[in-house]
Each structure stands twice: as C-alpha cells, then as structure tokens.
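Researcher: Next sequence.
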Amino acid sequence: MEEQINTMGQKINRFATVAREHKNSFRLFELLRYNCHPNVRFTSLNASFQEGNIILKGQTDTYLSLSQQIDILKKNPVINQVRVSDITLSREGKIDFQISFNVQPQIFTSPDVSVMPPLELLLR
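Model: Next structure:
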C-alpha cells in the first residue's frame, strides 16, 4: 500500500510539472504574439523558464523591420537586455539574425503581468 501511495505521489508531481511548463509556454507564445513585427518571422526558439532567458532566430526582408522589431522588444517593460547577433544576408536576400533577451519571471507565474507592448507602439 505504501509503495502505491509513493507511486501515485510521483505521478502527481510529474503531472504538476507538465502543467506548470504548459502554462509557462503559453505565456511565452502570448508575449511573442503581441511583440512580433509583422514582417519578421522567427524560425527557432530556445527558452529557459527558470531564468527567463529567451533566444530567437529569425528572418526578415529589411534592416528597417529588424530595427523596428528590436525597438518593439526594448520598449516592452517585461523584456530586458535585448541583444542582437549573427546578422547575415541569406542566399535568398533575406536578413537572418538572432535576438536574445530576458523576461521578468513573473510573466510565467502571474496572469496579472501584461505581456502587451506599450500603447504608443500599438497606435503607430
């Protein structure tokens, strides 16, 4: 009986971890949805929910849209330390790049923390 209780406890703990990670990923995708420039396409995502570190690889048609994407991220109060690297021109004439940033960990635990960009960016 004790072994069954231990087994059930382990299953419950694993389920809690899966449920927590699902919640985390939902908030991250919500953040990206509201803070992605319409001419930017992200091709790769690497996220560490514990530390709030996000690394995105992406592609766009112009340096202007890349610059605007960086501006969108930098102006969002839950996003910190925006860094851009590995900017290259692809064979197809697209601009490939990598953006990394940190997010406030509260976005993953508190539904009250907004992931929306600042209002002035929405009104452009």
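Model: The chain has a mean pLDDT of 82. The CA atoms of residues 2 and 107 lie 39 Å apart.
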